[in-house]
Queue: 2 jobs
Job 1
Amino acid sequence: MSIVNQGRIAIFTDDPGWHGKRLKQAFAARGYQAQYLSLTDCRIDLEQGIGGVVLPGFEQRLPDGVFVRGVPGGTLEQVILRLDFLHVLPAIGVPVYNPARAIEKSVDKAMTSLLLHQAGIPTPPTWVAESAAQARALLMREVARGHELVLKPLFGSQGAGLRRLAQPADLPPAEEYHNVYYLQRYVGAAAGGWEDYRVLVIGGVSRAAMTRKGVNWINNVAQGAACEAAPNDPELFRLAEAATRALDMDYAGVDLLRDRSGRLTVLEVNSIPAWRGLQSVVSGDIAGMLADDLIDRHLRQAARERCA
Ligand SMILES: Nc1ncnc2c1ncn2[C@@H]1O[C@H](COP(=O)(O)OP(=O)(O)O)[C@@H](O)[C@H]1O
Ligand SMILES: [Mg+2]
């Protein structure tokens, strides 16, 4: 069966890999030709750009939609310029999945914690400060109450750079954490080893979930955790959906953990989640679900608006 050409998609990525390939195939199966593109190659040209924007490969016509698989780090100026493209594209008719604002909110763990808290979603007690003296005082107070703290890089991912602090002397110099201390009460592993959950919410609905069993307390797949299908727990799915709504995301990979008292708590919400581990334990095609959601809720909508 031949598929009618529906349009073109840009996948922003510097490392297409397995995920890029799966997405490209999923879009192709739905009639969309997807092309990889690095945000580092995009530029602003008010004279010749479309709406001032030049996306290599899309000089004559902008893509019908953009799927963001990566925003490379760099200087503050570089990152802001890269985000400028994601911000401006919807204004010139190109849906961006996930939107720039959602990516900004979730890359910044402090903002994620604030938004979860304000939405009344359970998340561990968290403190963020620049002052080492304040961080040390907090650590002393928490240790005196029998708690440990987890120190995380504000923009971290894949479990990199996380540290458990059990005594005031464990606090590293602020420079090691870009001069911001993001500190969270350690609420892990009641009994029976290390584990947490990853739920993928697409278009407001939990579509796939797994239990991650870590080799230590950091249960990221990138840190060697094993993946299993998650239990069919409505509360797990409900909380993941609420967290995704609180950050206003099209889709999200939500990390949840059962704390020592048995309550589910949301650790973080990822706007550019990997799904290779998750795909290995669920039957539905995740790339296909993502492509369907972008097409159904954004591209068809944009086309309807153009026709109206
Ligand atoms: N407050 C915490 N208590 C217990 N374990 C935690 C806590 N915060 C993080 N972890 C563990 O570390 C992992 C990585 O933390 P997370 O906040 O998701 O950062 P990252 O962006 O690096 O994935 C979590 O999946 C969880 O297993
Ligand atoms: Mg995580």
Job 2
Amino acid sequence: MVANQSWIDGSSVDVDESADFIVIGSGAAGATCARWLAGAGHSVIVLEEGPSAQVTRGDGYELTTKLLRDGGGQTTRGADAIELIQGRCIGGSTTIGNAVHSPFPEREWRAWVQQDVRWAHRLPWDALAQVRDILDAEQAVVKTPPELWGPLGQAFLAGFPGQAAPTWRSAPNCQGSGRCMQVCPLGAKGSVDRTMLDTAVLAGARVYAQCRVDRVIVSAGKATGVVGTFSSGKKGTWMAKRAVFLALGTLQTVALLARQGLVVRGPGLQMHVQAWVAGLFPGVVDGVGGTSVAMETHAFRDEGLELQSIRLPKAMRARLVPGVGPALVDRLAVQNRVGSFSLSMRAKARGRVAATRDGSAVHYDLLPEDRKSLLRGVSLLSEAMLRGGALEVWPQVHGAPCAVTSHKQLHAIEQLSPDPGRMWLTATHFFGGVDVDDWFALPGISNLVLADSSVFPQSIGVQPRAAIQTVASVIAGRWASV
Ligand SMILES: Cc1cc2nc3c(=O)[nH]c(=O)nc-3n(C[C@H](O)[C@H](O)[C@H](O)COP(=O)(O)OP(=O)(O)OC[C@H]3O[C@@H](n4cnc5c(N)ncnc54)[C@H](O)[C@@H]3O)c2cc1C
Ligand code: SF4
């Protein structure tokens, strides 16, 4: 990993340029595409709406105001109001991510091929496996070592005996400060600004930050460039000699297409939905070392559940502390003894993304079986937290006791009716289900390439960054080679 940070932060003049490839978005997909396209000798311009990533010295609120789209305040439209968390900065969501790497599961790829045999030649497994190995090496993906498990990771390990395992992460120099979501203060995390974008810049790519792309220029059924606006108000026009790559993140990619009236077909949006369980431990579990996400278990993958230990910024953790009046004050006074576990549930529901004037409206209603899965996940996490040593566990489920101290009390959670609105839910993993042609272009518009997980026909059930980078690599590699 290198760190030259030589992108161009905004502009005080109008810009009019051209390149072989224009890439919109500098996150997992965009930065990875730029790395392969520029690496193959093509001229590349990357346009990123957000600013250069800055380490937030404060807490969760500083993170939301500086680095999140809409301050993290956007929710789905539907019965469940799921908070949609997306990075809006150089490096995209990886800059505020936990750097966990889960390889694209081969069985998911097989399921894609079974449903539509074209995936076999669009994304040959051998090609995916080859770039996965290159990316893992370039991004120094390593297993979280015992000294970085911290008390919370140890509690998760004790909570899931024989089922928990350390995470694999791109953070080779991690010191366990547990502040990944606020941008690594030590530069130890392999967010793609450090692993991919820097490499692209060294190979000649130009990267503009604080430049929002407003629309793609389409002429005679062909994408020929893009028009954007800098945060200074200055305008930019970038013409693409070869292709325009959309890597805005699934929700924004689909919204941009919809805003222009371009027809998007396909089975529609899926997401992984996250919920949290917190608890009070007898000793200090936060602020005494341990990386952000040290432990996970795949034991419940067949049920669509991924479970992890997670260190949250203090302000976010405070949100999980129950009670009012003196009970709340007492619990907040010992916040460093509060730990949290999270679940990521592979929702079966499909939704859709519509454009608003300058953003997206996400219509998504969980199915009753999805809500049942969430209750199951919370029950599993709560039980594990008690087993892992918590004095009391806070399941965060409306209708369940707010503080649980015995395994007996937990059985009631899974018996609750799967009504909407029982939990605080968030989502950070999106899969667009947008139909594309064999060049990953929008059918009917040549040279308009969708390069992020908007093209994934369904969710994948694991942390998606590695899969997104792997797929983006194959897409960019194909365009780079002709
Ligand atoms: C808090 C958090 C923690 C996470 N932790 C993990 C983890 O540990 N492991 C894992 O595998 N996954 C994790 N993820 C998910 C992972 O980061 C994302 O799935 C992945 O980054 C998505 O890649 P992307 O390129 O599609 O979008 P992003 O990485 O979000 O990048 C899209 C970029 O496009 C830019 N953009 C959007 N619209 C425009 C426009 N009009 N003009 C110009 N630029 C635009 C955005 O500002 C953004 O920077 C996490 C996500 C979050 C939010
Ligand atoms: S846990 Fe701390 S040191 Fe490690 S990668 Fe995250 S922010 Fe950096």
